[in-house]
Structure formats: structure tokens, C-alpha cells
Design brief:
Structural class: mainly alpha
Distance between the termini: 26 Å
Number of strands: 0
Strand content: under 5%
Length: about 230
């Protein structure tokens, strides 16, 4: 026997048995309702945790985007410095070549020729010494610039490596956020189904309570001569 939707056509003896059936079904539905409500609460807790993870991922992705942009700016700055140092080296190389040519010309110019040309010998040797000193300073400066350019290039490569790593981490976080979004949507669908089942149990309980009360009213009315409300 099952709890009927209507008590019309049943005898008092049948109704007495049906009353127990309805009460049993009510108790069964109430137990299922309690379990369903606990399940809904658990799912809601999971959704809250997933939302927190998503928000955390979003903030981490934003922070990593800022870091990547900063690294990009630093790489551009290092590249500009390298270009400037390279241009400076090229200029200095040109100057050095010119100095070497001029000092070579002086070296080939003998003191006798200097005397015959009317040039002061002291000026002749001073000029030669000056060219030598300037050449040495140019070479020293070029070595310093080359070292600085190499150091700058090394730092740029490290920055590019860091940027690549940050990009990989950002992609991993984006993928993690995507998976978390998917899990949250699944839990939200599960929650909607659970809440729907919860409403269904409530309706079934209410319906059976209505039938149970109708049966009791019929029995009391039969026994006492009046309907119990």
C-alpha cells in the first residue's frame, strides 16, 4: 500500500492502515530531506572554497601580468643600452683607427724630415707621445665599454629567462583557474539539482501530511461524530 492522493472510497479499516503508511512515507521523506539538505550545505561549502580559489588565481594572474610587463620594460631598456654601447664602441673604433693612422704617419716622419720641414722637434715628439697616450686610453675605455655591454647582455638574457618563466607560470595559473571554474559550475549544477530534490521532498511531505490529516479527520469524525480540524 502507498499513501493515496485522495481518501475517497476507502473504509475506516483501510484508512487506519493507510494512516500508518502515510506516516511511514513522511518519516522516509523527512530522512531523505535531511540528507539532501546536508548534501546541499556541503556543496555550498565547496562552491565557496572554489570561488576563493578563483579569486586568488585572478589576483595572482594580475600580479604576474604586472611582473611580466615590468620585465618587458627592463628588457627594452637593456636592449636600448646595448645598442647605445655598441654605437659608442663603433665611434671609438673609428676614432682609434684614425689615431693609429695619424700616429703611424708621425712614426714614419723622421727627425731629419722634421728639421727640414721646419717643425720643432719637441713638438714632433710631444705629438707622437700624445697620440700614443690617447690610443692607450681609447683601448682601455673600449675594453670597459665591451665589459659593460657584455654584462648588460647577460642581464638582458637573465631578464628574458625570467620573463619566459613568468609567462609559463601565468599560463599554468590561467589553466588552473579554468579548471576551477569548471569545477565550480559542476558544483553549482549539482547544487541546483539537490535543491530541486529538496523542494520535491518538501512537497511530497506536505502532500502526505495533508492526506494524513484528512485520514485522521475522517477517523475522528466517525468515532466522535464531528470533524477534527
Amino acid at each position: 500500500m502507498v499513501c493515496p492522493a485522495s481518501i475517497e472510497g476507502y473504509s475506516d479499516a483501510d484508512l487506519t492502515r493507510l494512516l500508518g503508511v502515510c506516516e511511514k512515507e513522511i518519516a522516509d521523506r523527512e530522512q531523505k530531506l535531511g540528507l539532501t539538505q546536508k548534501q546541499a550545505t556541503t556543496i555550498e561549502s565547496i562552491i565557496v572554497q572554489l570561488k576563493y580559489r578563483i579569486q586568488k588565481s585572478e589576483l595572482e594572474i594580475k600580479a604576474r601580468n604586472i611582473k611580466i610587463a615590468q620585465l618587458g620594460d627592463e628588457i627594452v631598456e637593456r636592449s636600448d643600452n646595448i645598442s647605445a654601447l655598441s654605437a659608442r664602441l663603433d665611434d671609438m673604433k673609428s676614432s682609434l683607427v684614425e689615431l693609429i693612422q695619424k700616429s703611424s704617419q708621425l712614426s714614419d716622419f723622421t727627425p731629419v724630415e722634421a728639421v727640414l720641414s721646419g717643425e720643432d722637434l719637441s713638438d714632433f715628439f710631444i705629438n707622437l707621445d700624445d697620440y700614443t697616450v690617447v690610443q692607450a686610453r681609447l683601448r682601455e675605455t673600449m675594453d670597459e665599454i665591451q665589459a659593460l655591454r657584455a654584462d648588460t647582455e647577460d642581464k638582458r638574457k637573465k631578464l628574458e629567462s625570467s620573463k619566459l618563466k613568468e609567462n609559463e607560470l601565468r599560463l599554468a595559473q590561467v589553466e588552473e583557474k579554468r579548471r576551477t571554474d569548471g569545477l565550480k559550475k559542476e558544483q553549482e549544477r549539482a547544487l541546483a539539482l539537490t535543491r530541486g530534490q529538496e523542494d520535491a521532498y518538501k512537497k511530497e511531505i506536505a502532500e502526505r501530511e495533508r492526506v494524513k490529516n484528512a485520514i485522521r479527520n475522517r477517523i475522528f469524525r466517525t468515532v466522535g461524530g464531528q470533524e477534527l480540524r
